[in-house]
Each structure stands twice: as C-alpha cells, then as structure tokens.
C-alpha cells in the first residue's frame, strides 16, 4: 500500500504516493519498494488559487473518502484547483492523485474526481503545464478515460450523459467540442462567428434534451440544417456514435446540429456550425 504524506503524516489515496520533501525535491518521480510510480511533490512550492498549495494533500485525502460530488470538500477543491475555469501549478500536480481516486471510487454518475480532472485539463490557462502533465501522466490519464468510458454505459439522463461526453472530450484534448457539450446542456450556443462578415450571433435550442432537439439563430429564427450521420467525421462522429449506441436520441440530434450548417442572419452566408469556434 502507498500513502500520501504531508510532512510526517500520511493518508491512503488509492495508490498514489505523494511525499512532501524539502525545497530541493520538487516534482521528482521515482520507483517505490513495490515497483510503483512514486511522485515526490513539494506542495508548499506550488500555488493554487489562494496561494501556497500546502493544504492540497490533506484536502485530497479527505476527498478520497467522499464520493459525493455535492460534498463541501469538492467545492473547496474546485475553488482551489479550477477556480472559474482557471488551473494552477498545483492543479496539474493533483492529476495523478485524482486519477487514482477516480479508479478507486464507486462507478457512479457525476464521479467527482473524474470531473475535476477533466475541468483542469479543459482550463487552457496553463498550456505548457498542461502539455507537460499529459506527457508525464499519460498512464494515469488513460486510466481516467477507462473510468469515463465505463460511465457512459450507466443509465443516466441526457444532461448527465452530456457531462460524461464533456469529460471524455476534455481528457482527449478536444477543448472546443467539450465546450459545445456544455452549450448543449444550456439553451444556446453563444458567439457563433460568421466566417464571411465576421459578425457574431447566438443559436438557441428548441426542444428538450431528452427529445430530438433543434437549433435556430436568435435574430431571424433561421433553423440550423443538421448534418446526416454520413456527413460527420472526427470528434463529432465519435461523440454521435456514443450517443446513438447508448440510446441518447436527444444528444445525438444535438450533435447532428453541431455538425450541420447555418445561414448567417446578418449577411446570408451559409457555413458549417463547427467552423464557428
């Protein structure tokens, strides 16, 4: 068994070993006695939203025993590690711990460790740290993807399913598509930019997510022409296939709209919705 240590005390964190070292040992990796990957992190050298990240190990240890995403400890961690979508040094250092926590927690909708890790990766506020974390923690992120894909098979409503797709897109680095999963949960896609006149407008959703949704522009009410399944490719095709496979008709219809075309209500030019972000 391995432990997270904060100074001279340790707590089990589902297989992650984070050792609080002196200032000469920040962010090292080594091999433990049982051959496991050991991450040596000087948390006091790192920063979260409020300054020194020295409290993060204890907060993660507490959260590891709290699978309820609505628990205050998860609000605390979101506030420190992904405050209003901004990530920090400590955020990326926490990723391997969150991955191990997600694997150890019950497989339930809204799995909090998975969603926080996805939020950190979606931040975009520290691109160099994100790129380094994706390289350094490739095996841990692969384990997170496995948890996420197993979550897709659970019985869930359309909103929960979209957030599971949101996490999948974030883990794979498809930030634009992750953002659009969030737009489908909301009632509109804001700031669609016409590639011809460069003006922007919003698309508003019609219909409930559990049904066959459609979109129209908020100025003249021109409907988006959805793509056919054969027209889809890349990320959109994959997300659509997952929605169809798991019986999420409303989500699948929304993805066809995102893969479709719209006429600019300001200049009349037609263009692909996906080209607007």
Please give a structural write-up.
With 277 residues, this protein is an alpha+beta fold. The chain folds into two domains: 4-154, no CATH class; 183-276, no CATH class. It contains eleven helices and 14 strands. It has helices at 56-63, 72-81, 89-93, 95-104, 112-122, 127-136, 138-152, 158-171, 175-185, 234-245, 249-258; strands at 4-6, 9-11, 18-19, 28-31, 37-40, 47-48, 51-52, 82-83, 86-87, 188-193, 200-206, 214-217, 261-263, 270-272. Strands 2-1-3-5-4 form a five-stranded mixed beta sheet, covered by helices on one side. A three-stranded antiparallel beta sheet has the order 10-11-12. The chain has a two-stranded antiparallel sheet with strand order 6-7. Strand 10 and strand 11 form a beta hairpin. The longest helix is centred in the middle third of the chain and has 15 residues, at 138-152.
